[in-house]
Amino acid sequence: MNNLNFKSDQKEKMTQWRIGHISSSEKGKQNGKMYDHIIPRSIWKENLWEGIRDEASLTEYLTTNQIRPHTGKHNLLSSWVNCANLYFPIQENQSLQKLMLWFLQQHVSDQITELTGVELEFSFEPESTLHPSQLLGEMDGNRGSGQTSPDVAFLVKTKQGKGIILTECKYTEHGFYSCSARKIDKSKQRENNPDPARCMEKVTDADYSDVCHQTNWGRKYISLVTYSDYAKNKLTRCVAATAGYQLYRQQALAEGIAQKGQYSLVASAVAFDNRNSGLKGCLRSTGIDDFQTGWGKLFEGKAIFKTWTHQQWVQFVRDNQKDGEFNKWLEYLSERYGY
Fold it and tell me: DSSP string covering 101-131, please?
């Protein structure tokens, strides 16, 4: 199933799913238009699994940690909501934490010995040298808006010390978005890129330091990554230009954290829906046929790159839960998402 068909299929399924699950049949608005798969903003919490819906759960967590939820949280296709439904319950349940520990040991590193935390829209504290303002030069953002905040981070202990797994979650998106420095800012709050076309050209030895307009904005991404020989041979243009921007920023953040030496394991990861073939091949025009197998080969450094699918996580819980402990949650995920 290609991405266009996958997304259309999910829109249709969510439009049917809302009948009997969402209290209002009223269409919701997003980007100025009304859609069947969007619900009114006032009832956005009905987009969440009931186990994390009450005030003492996800909403309290967001408020306490000053996290700005995604503006599309009332969209039934929201990857932010999809992420919350799949991974936030881990924070509140010890049995689920144990299962995620085993899962991460298999899918990220067998050096992991303990899961110590699960954080949405993760960021270190502003005063930390590991905060995006210090590492990446992102000065005006906060958790969830205007800075590189991975959708979910798993904090772990390893045999060598401590670790962190920065994870981007995807559902129906066709890629990891295009670089903001290629767009023309009509408000001119920042200096516009004088030649966006240069981002689309192959550069000798994959050295984009003289091309990257992000550096004009004080962003430090390119200073943190080192391209491999594989990248120098494969890349046809900047990997962040059209569909790899989020991954590029997360890679830079992970490498920056790893270089500071406070963590023995730092991983940049992607969790996604296995049916989304468009996402898998979104970097094909840059020379990478499948981001799962190609992205990790692009960089030399201390941070590692890993992927897993939402289906793998859900099936792992289904296979390893005790006495049907998570049957209600699993039934919800199956009925709603087909997991």
Answer: HHHHHHHT-TTEEEEEEEEES----TTSTTS
Query: Using CA atoms, how far apart are residues 77 and 7, in angstroms rounded to an integer?
Result: 9
Are 245 and 177 spatial neighbours (Cβ–Cβ below 8 Å)? yes
Rg of the chain (C-alpha set): 20
Strand partners, 310: none
Rounded distance between C-alpha atoms, residue 334 and residue 118, angstroms: 23
Task: Give 125-135 pLDDT, tens digit per residue.
Answer: 989 999 999 99
The alpha-helical segments, DSSP class H, found in 221-260 are: 221-224, 229-234, 245-260
Query: Model-level pTM?
Result: 0.95
The 10s digit of each residue's pLDDT in 110-164 is: 999 999 999 999 999 989 999 999 999 988 877 877 789 999 999 999 999 999 9
CB atoms within 10 A of CB 64: 8
Nearest to 139 by CA among 214, 250, 244: 214
As beta bridge partners, residue 115 has 156
CA nearest neighbour of 333 among 279, 280, 273: 273
